[in-house]
Amino acid sequence: MISIKNLYWFKYDLRITDNIALYNCSKKKNSAAIYIYDSNIINDKNFGNLHLDFINDSLFYLSDVFKKNGAHLNIFYGDSIKVLKKIIDEYNVHSIYSHYEVRDLKTREINKNVKLLCSSTRVEWHQFQRNGVVEGLKNRDGWAHLWNKQMNLPLVPIPSLSNFKKLKRLESITINENPQIAHIRYLKKFEGGEAAGKLQLKKFLNETGQTYSKDISSPLTAPTSCSRISSYITYGNLSIRYIVKETQKRQKFLREEKSRNGWLGSLSAFSSRLRWHCHFIQKLEMQPSLENTNMVRSFDQIRTNPNMEFFKCWSKGEVGFPMVDACMRFLKNNGWINFRMRAMLVSFASYNLWLDWRLTSKFLSKYFIDYEPGIHYNQFQMQSGVTGINAIRVYNPVKQQADHDPDGLFVKKWIPELKNVPNDYLQYPHLMSDSLQKKTGCIIGKSYPEPIVDLKLSSLAARKKIFSIKSLDITKKQSSIAYETHGSRRKIRRV
Question: What domains sit in the chain, N to C, each tagged with a CATH number?
């Protein structure tokens, strides 16, 4: 009978390369590797089919790698605590290996209960740092140094998988076997998994990333010029350190070949965002309440009575501002949209519609394949003006359309109701005459909605409300505390 003393628990680290927790467990005999489709997470409103698709892809790849190495990846469905307890009791497990995950409050609750379980069963739980996020910091003093130190370490060796056995005395499942996780893939837009992630990174660094700096703002060019690796980072298909080192190798090659042509500037900009990724997640690690609470509490008194009709229109992509509507429809169809357009969607909802970020963030979490709570909630707070430490940015959707879709190609593709509208009216279709509406087949109020708010007046009103709170002494005091805790200590530089 096989004895299992060591357990490796895959969570948001679905890879073999540069996996320190897996490597350390692989050196132990009598080990098993598991993944748990946690029913509490899958049934949460933040979780969507797009997330499940990506996880499934990642597990298909991992399972195949284990199989090719004469090993087995055990997959379970259910409550993580119950599954782990059953394995511990059945096999008398001594140690669990995993990464320290910083995600939402539900995940924190699971981890808290796992800690209690390990304590009660005398199981050692070895948790390893994930990317550049550090457990237990009180403020940002020295964090940049710690991040650089982590990135400068060599990649962890590829582990031998031969020690990972099948848990024969417990009934596991195959991917998509359980009816609660099985589904027809309705929107296969993006392939998950470590191999797909490495291929995407290679493509970006060698082919598509040359115009990254100048093309990432437009929804027309961003799909091909952005790296598109955020989802692979979220699910741990790629480590930040692996990406940093691959980027550095490419930069070194370009310098030696003296073949720059925009490449070095683009890759430098890309590198800075790798650190920003960890920067935002570190905020949630230090203050988990940021998922549901304003960073500066004096802003609690605003947006207390959201207009749910406005929310309904925004969520459907029917606010009467073509760029906003097109971006919302694109996002819901593709599971991704570039950062500037994300910011515009949140800005419009927060300022022009005066909707609370907790309402809009919870709605959109399931549509982003790369949903990362530490980034998601902090960005929503930042774009809605409640952090006290970030500039107030009210994006004008008409200007964004003029700047980034001047010919209306993006708008007309995602709002077919406007396909016959002349470009001169595409930013303000409601200004068309009745005769022109009939001619184009776009009847405002019927085919396409009128603007649900006055853009100028709603922007002015929002600024007035925000700055009236910002000017208060209590806000200034709380903002100072927020900066001391979360503010970046120095300018971002290449590692």
Answer: 6-130 (3.40.50.620), 195-286 (1.25.40.80), 291-486 (1.10.579.10)
